[in-house]
Amino acid sequence: MTFVLDHIGLEAGGLRVIDDVSLTFEPGSLNVLLGPTLAGKTTIMRLMAGLDRPTTGRLLLDGRDVTGVAVRERSVAMVYQQFINYPSLNVYENIASPLRVARLGSAEIEARVREAARVLRLENLLQRMPSQLSGGQQQRTAIARALVKRAGLVLLDEPLANLDYKLREELREELPRIFSATGAILIYATTEPSEALLLGGFTVTLSEGRVTQFGPTSRVYRDPRRIEAARVFSDPPLNELAVVKRGDETRGADGRPLGRIEALAGRPDGDYRLAFRADAAGIGPPAPGALSFAGTVAVTELSGSESFVHADVGLGVWVCLVEGVHDWAPGQVVNLNIDPSRVFAFDSRGERVRQIHAAEVAA
Amino acid sequence: MTSITLDHIAHAYYGKPREDSDYQLKPLNHVWEHGLAYALLGPSGCGKTTLLNIISGLVIPSVGRLLFGERDVTHLPTEQRNIAQVFQFPVIYDTMTVAENLAFPLKNRRLPKPVIEKRVAEIAEMLDLTADLGRRARGLTADAKQKISLGRGLVRSDVSAVLFDEPLTVIDPALKWELRSKLKRVHRALDLLMIYVTHDQIEALTFADKVVVMNDGRAVQIGTPAELFYRPEHTFVGYFIGSPGMNFLPAEVEGARARVAGFDLALGAAYPDLPKGRSVQVGVRPEFVSATAGPGLPAQVRRVADLGRKRLAYVSLAGHPLVATLPNEMESVGDSVNVAIDAVNTHVYVDDIRVAGRAP
């Protein structure tokens, strides 16, 4: 099954909530919708499910227009962040409920429920009521219910957000495997960049109801096309600085000279924005070839094996990730070295710009 | 200067406890030192909230005494304990301004107006709320409201402790970074005892001077973030801290060598007197197992995960699952690869407890 969003838009209360979204999801693919709260993840999922109708555009399933088709007549399963189970039904009946609605035979129901319970490790809990389950077990029950439907399109809306992170780690490993066996298109919404990376597959970055990039997850991470995509896909947050380029010289917004910036070579003069992730910055004596900044340590956070140093460089507070445990004291002045090959440059409209090589200019 | 002492504290929610397993919070002795930031970290149901509730007075422990300084407060109600609390969801007055909200705990204690004003200004400054002081709380975003909650928790300088119960759960990832680092800065500036409950390891490790790792009602290790990472005293700490957690492999240990999955492995220390007939495992974090083109133990590659700033290889070592780090210079791996294990960071566990080795 191929699923296409063709110029989907949604207006609500005079506001454009979803803005011209076009995406093609391949059969059996795993797709992550990555964006902060209010980016439009849940809204897009509701449109995909058929719970809401778009103002403009079409939804195509294998080429067939399903835009106005009711949810019940679509092959869709959805799991919400806040797990939903029927409180008066035991786990078995909760999982079986969509199959009862579809009027399947009891032998078929039994077989599917047992299989889903095995995969989600709920076999010993089938007779329990939801109130007797932990949060993780309740969410697994909700996921099992989505699984037994054998829907062609499975929408998971931050399904692990309310769970302990160790359980999240385990389920995150298992979910793609469980659903890929069914050949379904899996769409998984999250606010967390690390979750997108761990899931792999394809990633859609979303900002304010707009798709900023769609591609294989590692590629979107390494090669963001717009500044919004880079921001959404950075945790710790993306470090940024506004610069002005005049000829070969680039200066910070405060006028400090930064020398020649490789990523801007050959670009027209004007305003740009440079950005880099925390792990592209190191701390130490000024290194040859690196972009160096003096910064005042605001706070150092230790994660056990790594240190996150928040330093004020006079252009904002940046976060650097340094291997090992280093407890730089607040107020201490340190030198930050940034690897120029890992600096992204964006033009004033937020489009990524790349270095133009002399050979290209000549051609 | 008040420290808080747990003197043989234990708690059972049901019936008369007779043995260890009857307690939902197992017996615990601990001193929370004034001026330090602690995190209580563990999965749901591990007892961390019970412990926090004992300190705040919501739960009276079945056994043991709770001391604030020298004073026994075991049976005192919350309002007589002189503590401040911050909860998962903002607890503020919508009709009041931000400044009035921050001032409220101080007004209740009838502090003089200039003292209140000075303190409110100071806390607002630390939390970047100065520009909002005159605004009503109603209409502010969820994270701004939670900042006010944090401010209310921090505004009193005379409290014995500030207790936080998962205060950043409802905050977006990018803002979490900002609020967490603010909280840490505030802690450095204010000289308060802070106790912070969370199930998020990054939050616990980055916020706390010391982390109490809890599992199944027991505090399995109390240590600095580096101690928990480099020297987990219990297999649960190895598993729970780190993402993914520590690798554990069943082993036979003989002096400074271990027999693991049919291979001979060097250890960083000697273990001459291990008890017989017990479960022995070696534990090593993925950060200290690396895939290599050089010599190492032969493993089958099951899966490679690209985490952006590092890559992990999930391999099988003679049938035992193992997670290794892929070094940057190794562009790709085939179906099999050698893994090198760092002996110094390999630990030996007997019945889940780390055994100290001797210098070889």
- Helical coverage of chain B, percent range: 10-25%
Strand content of chain B: 25-35%
How far the N terminus sits from the C terminus of chain A, by CA atoms, comes to 44 Å
* CATH top level assignment of the largest domain in chain B: Alpha Beta
- Outline of chain A: globular
Average pLDDT over all residues of chain A: 90
What is the N-to-C order of secondary-structure elements of chain A (H for helix, E for strand)?
Answer: EEEHEEEHHHEHEHEEHHEEEEEEEEEEEH
Can you count the beta strands of chain A? 21
Counted beta strands of chain B: 20
- Rg for CA atoms of chain A: 24 Å
CATH topology of the largest domain in chain B: Rossmann fold
Which residue ranges of chain A are poorly predicted, with pLDDT under 50 across at least 5 consecutive positions?
A: none
- Strands across the major sheet of chain A, in which order? 6-7-8-3-9-10
Helix content of chain A: 10-25%
**Domain count of chain A:** 2
| pLDDT averaged residue by residue of chain B | 92
Q: Tell me the overall shape of chain B.
A: globular
CA radius of gyration of chain B: 24 Å
